[in-house]
Amino acid sequence: MPRIFVKNSRRGLHLKREHKNTEDEQVQKKISCAARLAAKHENDSALHLIAGASNMEDCDKVAEKLINKNVNVNAQNRQGFTPLHIAIQADNKAIFELLLKQDYLNVNLKTIEEHTPLYYALLKYESGDTGDDSYAACLMKSDIQTNPLYSEYCNSLMQILILNGAENAAIFLAVEVANLNHVNSEGETALHIACSKNFSKLVLHLAKLGANCNLLTNESRQSPLHYAVESNSEDCIKVFIEFNEYIEGSDTSEPRVPCNFNLRDINGDTAISLALNKGYNHLVPVLIEGKADVNIRNGKDFTLLHQAILNEDSKTAIFLLNHGVDINAKTTDYETPLQLAIHCHLANVVDALCTRGVDMSAPDRLGNCALWAALDSDQEEIASILTLVEHRANINIRDSENKTPLHIAIENQHDEIITLLLSVPEIDLSLRDKFGLSPFAAALTFRNNKAAQAILDKLPSAAEQVSGLADEF
User: Fold this and answer.
1) Low-confidence ranges of the chain (pLDDT < 70)
2) Which of 31, 37, 90, 95 has the most crowded CB, counting CB atoms within 10 A?
3) DSSP one-letter code for 465
4) How far apart are CA 49 and CA 39, in angstroms?
């Protein structure tokens, strides 16, 4: 039995040795083949080719042989790719792990497009490679630069990921980044770009990690909130509101700065003013929820109410009226919201203003009040005049020539307005303009017999106020 055992053992050893020799020969053949291909390519090294051959049997053994022969693990091809870059892109985990074990491996080398291996690992992460043994997670355990910069526009890796739509990868990376407030050549932070892409999950994540929500860009002087409005990103605006509420309810001793909803850009516009300018009226109530100042003025010195009225947006104007806006705020031309609403033919806004007790006697820079604005309108605003009268506007008010609204209506031959004014009990038919004409005398002067008769019907003694003209009538 011992002789049989020894004999069999020697045979087994011989077979093992033979198998090993055959295996070594196969590995050597693969190395030679890779070397020949590399020579033909004049671009990739043998290690590059092995790294890209994820389906090759024993590729890790071939690579190890190459490395033991002092093949440069950091060699870059014409595109700047190292074997590590290629192993990640080819999903060659065996070569990837082998390379990470090498003492002289440089994990931060860039391609000619300035991408490090981490960039490609994070793209894998975005595509679903999110486990603890993912390419990105493994690289984080090495001497990796987590947020390298790109020379063009000075964007960081995180900003590049966001621009490329990789929100989940950016969320993963954010925890590892030391400076979340890096600005590119335009003055944009990762928060700015995330808002422009409507990446609300990332925005909240960055804010909670300490990113500054109030940094302004270089030229336009816009905050991330401005960018959220520009991109019509309601979700990002709501996230800033959520973040502010999170700060208020936080017990942490670390000082946190909330998102300021009233920062102005280069044009003097806050986020809410910008929303109105862009026609994103649905964002206005959301911004007000975030404590945007409804009475703040833009660069043209218009309040939000002025803007809404000038945009002929009755819905937004009335919404603002329901949220504490100053109803008597004047423009630089001393026009009130009431006068603007009359000029813009917004009868429902005129009514809403009057219902809320707007000052109907406030004069503009020419000394004219809202009633004059209605009378001076190209299409004399019957509805507005009626509303003003119904809300007890002073119909005996006088202009610079001492004319009353009735004088003007008579001169303009506007029978409907004349009838409306004469129906008001408080009307004073004895008032004279600077030419000494009463409303009755004005009616005779402008040959408005219908108006003259209506005045006499209301005040028979009106004829005694004039001489000559009354006899002619």
Assistant:
1) 1-42, 252-253, 377-381, 465-473
2) 95
3) G
4) 11
